[in-house]
Amino acid sequence: MNPLRYKSTRGGETNITASQAIINGICQDGGLYVPDQIPRIDISLEALSQLSYQDLAYEIMRLYLTDFSEEELRDCIHKAYDYSFDTKDIAPVVEVEGIHFLELFHGPTIAFKDMALSLLPHLMTTAAKKQGVQKDIVILTATSGDTGKAAMAGFADVEGTRIIVFYPKDGVSPIQEQQMVTQKGTNTSVVAVEGNFDDAQTSVKKLFTDKELQEKMKKNEFRFSSANSINIGRLVPQIVYYFYTYSKLLNNKSITNGEHINIVVPTGNFGNILAAYYAKCMGLPVHKLICASNDNKVLYDFMTTGIYNKNRDFILTITPSMDILISSNLERLLYQLSGNSSEQVTTLMMALAEKGAYKISDEMRAGLGAFYGHYASEEETYFAIDEVYSKSNYLMDPHTAVGYSVYKKYRERTKDTTTSIIASTASPYKFTRSVMNALDESNNKFSDFELIQKMHDISKITIPKAIKDILNAEIIHNTTCEVNKMKQTVIDILNLS
Ligand SMILES: *Cc1c(COP(=O)(O)O)cnc(C)c1O
Questions:
Q1: How does residue 1 score in pLDDT terms, banded at 50, 70 and 90?
Q2: Is residue 184 within 8 Å of residue 213, measured between CB atoms?
């Protein structure tokens, strides 16, 4: 077999190496890079279960990053998963009421985005070296709250890179905002956009393929890349922890070798759950992938009807990282469901861009059988946080609570008792107000600072460094712009002539 390469979901690019795909971020035809074959794991699950997080990461990632040498890849992995995580386990699994919470928030910015974004800068600089890229790489990113901080933390002061983050002005939590506007690093810029996440993400995607901007960039010795989950360098590291969790469950005898598990993922841009799907395709024994949405339930509707329709109100919820109506990574799933038909994907994506909606064929729908989709309302989310804390003293952040709530619905409706893991995507400290309000509405009268202390008092969970760091930090970034001024803002920040 030829070594794995990447191609565009829309057919315009083929035979792209991993390092090229990572540097480019997105394809010039507007499509996303996908591997031209999904590799199968070539060592047993039992052998994997003997490995540390770092070694297991290597065994999975080498199958995708085929033009990285062993030394290069191991070096990147070890630089990423180090003492900046507060546990040697990197992604510990905690059992509560027979459910396994895969805690993905032990990294530097206390959300699951750290799992990939502490690695991406190393992959990107290594890839740039391999490709002999001389120009400075400008990371352009839209964030629903967590990607922005995690990406800046990773890229801050990394030589040869600049990073510009756009976040929806009224669409992130106070702590998420504080984390971003206090970001240090001479190469970081943060801009609040007067719009929602979809507005920001759609504009950023357009900037990547804007011809005039590209000319200006070239003239000024810059090139763009992306730290969003459209970058394959984000997706591949996310596959790792699903295998790692399985290993942990094997080791503590929660499952037997080969036993199937369910994976529940609170979903926004469809990146995290797509990684779980890739893991399944690679040979991880997965029964159902449970896709949990909030009130912006476009994915639930899609899974139940085969119709994707973003023409609806954008609802601001207590799970801002899932407030998304255009789930970018779904394009990669569609590609697979269509039997790798770039024609079909292009037609569907044109319909999405023009009419805001599309309908998939019955053949494609049949492939959705691996998934179960549902959603949790805001009320159900609050209820779940309170229920689990009251019963088991375990404090979930709202996103994780959406996963839990949907899992409960799934279980009630299907009576399926398969061992299940819930991807726990953020620390409760990142959404202190919503979590404390869930426990007791009267907490709403306290300041964010007081609530952090209160959360500590009741939960005894150590206040993470990420929170302590921002409490008295100086506000460095205060730029705001309208959606249609994002291009000019980039030109100004980079001082493009
Ligand atoms: C980004 C994020 C999600 C959604 O992940 P996707 O990969 O976009 O589906 C869920 N929860 C939290 C806390 C996040 O930061």
A1: low
A2: no
The contacts of residue 22 (CB under 8 Å, 6+ apart) are: 120, 123, 124, 127, 225, 231, 232, 233
Predicted local confidence at residue 441, as pLDDT: 96
Task: Give the angle 420-396-141 at the CA atoms, nearest 5°.
Answer: 95
Max CA separation in the chain (angstroms) = 63
Tell me which residue has its CA closest to atom 1 in ligand 1. Answer: 321
The response to whether residue 431 sits with its C-beta less than 6 Å from ligand 1 reads: no
Indicate yes or no: pTM above 0.90: yes
Question: What average pLDDT does the chain have?
Answer: 96
Written as six digits, the tokens of 172 are 């992130």
Nearest protein Cα to ligand 1, atom 8: 269
Please indicate whether residue 391 is annotated as part of the active site.
Answer: no
> Phi and psi dihedrals of 189, rounded to 5?
-140, 140
Of the residues 7, 79, 113, 297, which is catalytic?
Answer: 113
Please, are residues 7 and 36 in contact by the beta-carbon 8 Å criterion? yes
Distance CA 380, CA 154 (A): 34
What domains can you pick out in the chain, each with its CATH number? Answer: 93-110+233-462 (3.40.50.1100)
Condensed to tens digits (0 to 9), the pLDDT of residues 174-204 reads: 889 999 999 999 999 999 999 999 999 999 9
Burial class from Cβ neighbours inside 10 Å (0-12, 13-18, 19+) for residue 12 reads middle
